[in-house]
Structures are given as structure tokens and as C-alpha cells.
Automatic annotation (TrEMBL):
Species of provenance: Paramuricea clavata
Top-level EC class as recorded in UniProt: hydrolase
Signal peptide: none
GO cellular component, one term: cytoplasm
Family classification: Belongs to the NAPE-PLD family.
Protein's recorded name: N-acetylphosphatidylethanolamine-hydrolyzing phospholipase D
Cofactor note: Binds 2 zinc divalent cations per subunit.
Residues bound to an N-acyl-1,2-diacyl-sn-glycero-3-phosphoethanolamine: Y138, H276
Record keywords, A-Z: Lipid degradation, Lipid metabolism, Metal-binding, Phospholipid degradation, Phospholipid metabolism, Zinc
Amino acid sequence: MAEAQSDRMIYTQSIKVGSTYKNPWGDGDIPSKRAAIYFLTESNLSNVPGEEELNKTLPVHKLCPEVSRPPDKGIRITWIGHASVLVQFDGYSILADPIFSYRCSPLSFAGPKRYRPSPCTVDELPNIDAVCISHNHYDHLDVQTVQDLNVRFPNINWFVPAGLKDWMSQTGVTKNVSEYEWWGEKEISKTANDKTTIMKFVFTPTKHWCNRGVFDRNRVLWGSWTMIGPRYRVYFGGDTAYCKGFKEIGHKYGPFDLAAIPIGAYEPRKTMEKQHVNPEEAVKIHQDVKAKKSLGIHWGTFVLTYEYYLDPPKKLKEALLAAGIPEEDFFTLDHGESRLIIPDPEMTPRL
């Protein structure tokens, strides 16, 4: 088992001062007002074209019939768009950072809007066992999506960062909500055909920040999720800058059979380097967490930053080439597209 590795490494803990969480990586609070001004004065080079060209370069697919149930063998991952993924393995179907709304904004009439539609609605999803939330930014936590999921799946398990449980309750979600500091964990189980399967969820570090309003900055923690089943391990990176926490995650829980790692929303670099990784740093995360395969997420859906809209997968391929990593080991998908990963059977089993 990976847990049997030497635990001599000192694992970074989240820091809370009063009611506010702080990044423990020595970079202070982010982003600064100066960085925000710099961002607004830079040129937006995203250059998103019209729908006809988008349909060619970034198509959207309906979910394949196979997602109706988890695979008997391997891990199926489906890119819903931006950081939203559906991952299915070891008998479970898990959503991470789901957003199905048109805008990622506190306002219904303003704020970043989709330039690629969601490939499905909440009603078109298969049965969902759990939802993992990495942090409370609007492009990762959407109130309408949360409410719709709660209505459709009233017994779903919600895994959220410390400080978010009250918001969930105010939103109408009062059942099966668990919140965690870094390295906190919980197991859930389900029984089918007289066989009980256990899935462990661990809240793991990232380097980021949180807020949804003017006066709630960093009142909620941020992080990533490690999911450990009886056969396979999956890592979901959420949204992050680069930090040493990824080596800690890889040491404690790696290797991972599959990881979902952000690759977009990174320009202008002077502003974004302390909150979002670029593709080169995403490759370092892939290596640090010891992922056998990775999916690039956090791109291609909302214009949040200023890189050309197709640059994240292009730059990812360049970074993989420079690192000597095969392209098939760190890939991207179209919206709604699924891929079945079947790890090496001699490497995967963990009792």
C-alpha cells in the first residue's frame, strides 16, 4: 500500500489566523491590488472565434452511453468543461467542481459566460455517488448546479473544504456534507450484489485563495482531492499555483492511476503565477504526484485570463516534449468526451 511508505516527510498543514486562512508557502495574500491593476492593463489575447470555428476546434459531444454506469474495469473520466469532471471507477461515479450554468458569476446577467456549452444537464447525468468541491470561486462552485444536484440526488455525499459547510446549508444542502482541513479524510461505502466497496476521500493541499463576496476573503479553505478505491487511485487538482505540496501528496498517496490537473488561465504570468499553474508547471505536478496518466482541465470554457484560447493544450504538448513524457500520458479531451484508462494490472492492485 502507498500508505506503507516512510512517513518521515513533514506534511504542510493549512494555516488559519482568526477566521482567515493563509497560504503556508511564504507568498502572502494573493492576488494583490497591484497585480489586479496590472491584469487589467494587459492585452487580452484569448481571441475566441465564432461558433462555426469553435465547433471545428473545440467541439462539444453528448455523453456516451457508457457513462450510465461505472466501468467493470479501469477508470472512465469525462470532461464536462473547465474544471468539471465526471470520474467513474471501483463502482462509484464522482463529480468534481461541477458547473452547468451559463455564467460563473454572482450575477445572472454579467460576468464570465461560456463560449462552449455544457455537454449535458444535471438531469442527463448518471447516478452520482459523491461530489468533491476544491474551493468556493464561482467557476468551481455554482449555486444553481449545487441546488439541482441536491434535488436530483438527495442522498449524494458532498466533500467540501473547511468553512464551506455553512454555505452549503444556506444553499439548501443539509444532508451528507463533510468539510475538511488538509489531510482530513473520510470513507464511504456502498453495497451491490452482496459486495461492499469502500472509497476514501482525502482533502489535500493546493496554493490558491478563496472568496465569493467582498468581506469573506479566505474564510473558506482551498485544496485538491485524493480518491482511493480498492483497485484504483485518482487525484483531482482543482485550481492552484505550483507549490511543494504536490510532492507531499505524491509521497503520501502516489502513484496515482489518473490525475486531473489544471493547465489553463495562466496569462498574464506576472499576475497569475501565484494562483494558477501554466502547462509547464502542470507537467511538474503530474510528475510530483506520480500520476501514470493525467487529464488537462481548467481551460476551454470561460474567458478568465488572456492566453489564446487553444494555447493550453498546445503548450502542454510542448512541455511534455521538453520533459520527455509521451503525449498519451497527459492528454486533453473535447467537452463531453470520455476516456477509459486501464492501468497496468501488475502495478495497480493495492490491498
